[in-house]
Amino acid sequence: LQCSEHDALVVCMERFKHGSAGSEDTMDLLLSMDDATMALDKGDQQKVAGEQRRVQAQRTEQSCCAKAWTERRRKVKASTPKLVTEKSAARVRKAAEKKGERIYPESMPVGYITQRQLASLAPEGGYVWKNHKFGGFEAHFKPWPRISRLWHLHGGSRAAGILCLRYLWGRRCTTHGVDKDECPMKDLWTCPL
Description:
Blueprint: H1 5-18, H2 23-31, H3 34-38, H4 42-79, H5 86-98, H6 115-121, E1 126-131, E2 136-141, E3 147-150, H7 151-154, H8 157-176
Antiparallel strand pairs: 1-2, 2-3
């Protein structure tokens, strides 16, 4: 059975009309066209059939490789320790706060400290806020008086923030009759300003 090139083109066009526009779908469509292979000579049919088998073998190999890669990636992710990010730390803190607990880091953060970080490091009942008028941090732990630590007098916002935290934790320890060594942040008292 032979047909002209025009007839083969008509068959292909009809198949494309009903197919989707995706390249993989188009390739599948071309590979599965039995009508189009009928328009070819015997030698060309063998070439097309060989090409179809080669492409199918490549696709099978790619899918196996992708599955193996996904499995290896899952194992690597499971074996590597999770890095603590601000987002994950905030999630842990929120879960602890729901239980009525508060989690503090063992060491002070490195670099610039924001007011939000200071507030999260303050003990329960202690408050830290920005002094926008003079440029500094203020802290308060009831029933003790409020303090103000200005950035330009103490060498920057980090130093002023650490001094406010030391004040708050010192007052908490004094109020509860606890030694300063029991502060959850071990390097608060020794970290450089």
